[in-house]
Amino acid sequence: MGYLDYSIIAFYLLFALGIGIYFSRRASRSSEDYFLGGRSFPWWMIAFSMAATSFASDTPLVVTEITRRDGLQRIWWVFVAVLTLIVGIFLFSRLWRRAAIITDAELEPDPLVEPESICDRCMACVQGCPDAIPHRTEGRTVSIQIEDKTYEWADVHMGRCTLCYHGGDPRVSPFIHKTFPGYEFDVRKQDISEEAAYKLCWPFSLGKWRPTEEDPSGYIVEGHARIQQWGGDGSYGIEGSRGCMRSCFDHREQSGRIEQTFENGPFIKRPRWLLSHRVPNPGTGGET
Ligand code: SF4
Ligand code: SF4
Question: 274 Cβ partners below 8 Å, 6+ apart?
């Protein structure tokens, strides 16, 4: 081997090492980040990765040897593998995802957390939620058993939660107040399913009518559509989990139950607000 060969090998090793160092922080955030790249890859990159994984460095030698020995028809041995891989992926990938399989390597499970070691039942989440957690009024809870431990949490009315979160609730959306003067909708009185709430909220928020001076893009609720466009994965949140997540973050930070805290003061910095479920209509002298 000459100087050029050694240079290529050294460059390859340094390049591989550099990529490893560059992504090590991101990959160490969780097992999903390490094994699956945080599920952020486009399909074609996964396809290349699968193809590269399927071919060992000796594969071309083996295929050449088999073809030389048995004739060209043995090349179908390779083509059939492609077909079965494609069919297998279409049939099983959803099931792998549902089964939360991230690798076929054997992993040591983390120990289960002790029930109530994280949640101290302070009820800040219930207080912060705009009435989608029935526990607030009805005391309903859900519990599951994992090995010898029982975990319990407050039940959530998913229809009301979806209405709040995805922009069906005037109390949490100034954008509805801007677009629909005189409108009235009380999420607390609704008893629809999560699916029905989605069917209501998405077209209501993101559908198009015609451009007006107030909503020049033509979206039915311009502010909701902008939030959806700024979001990373196509979804959008108007109410932003103000109770179940943000109140809990805040409580856990303030009670010293988490090590990593937010910079620049407490997580919730400003007084919390809820608008009226009746949108004032200055034009008709309605409620203001
Ligand atoms: S805010 Fe958090 S710690 Fe408090 S009851 Fe809710 S889930 Fe538990
Ligand atoms: S996202 Fe959380 S806080 Fe918001 S309505 Fe649903 S359960 Fe309540």
Answer: 130, 171, 172
